[in-house]
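TA notes. Do not distribute before section.
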Amino acid sequence: MKSSNRIKSVIAIFADGTKKYFDTRGKLHRSNGAAIEYSDGSKSYYRHGYLHREDGPAVVRSSGKSRYYLFNKAVNRYDVKIRLANKLSA
């Protein structure tokens, strides 16, 4: 088995506790969670620099408000559900 020591992501932790995750090209990205975790509990999901999430809202505020995005385009939650349904049936 060949082992790879390649860096797959970088995390930056700021003085206020905010965490940002980046891919190897310096784009906001995290495949298993929010790419930005703000100190107030808000979260933003990015995929290789695009505000994007296919299984829920891409922006979740600590107030409970949320917004849906697919590849930086604001959409409604039904667009996300349709995309997920199509992906599962393919």
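Switch to the second chain here.
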Amino acid sequence: MPFPTIEPTVPALVRSSAARFGEKPFLIADGKVLNYLDLDARSSRLARALLAAGIGKGDHVGILMPNSVEWAVAWFATTRIGAVGRAVAAARTRVTSAPRRAASSATAAPILPDERFPT
């Protein structure tokens, strides 16, 4: 079996999967369906917003939300720009609408969800 012809990166995988599978479901969670085209469009839009806010390769972005379509969009968006999506346990954490910052040994970046970054 030959090696795939795409460059093995998250953005390339998302784009090629969107082209190949289109409106087929990628994820179904809590009654919401995210198809491959929507995953590509929504994660790309969020990735651009993160880049515009100065978040980039190597930054850590906390994702504070339950397993959901929005969580998947947030994770793919952060990895599309070379950032590290870090799941933050939501069960013991109170979520507010105010922007939050997460500290890591390397960088500090917003915790999603954040009203500046719609998923």
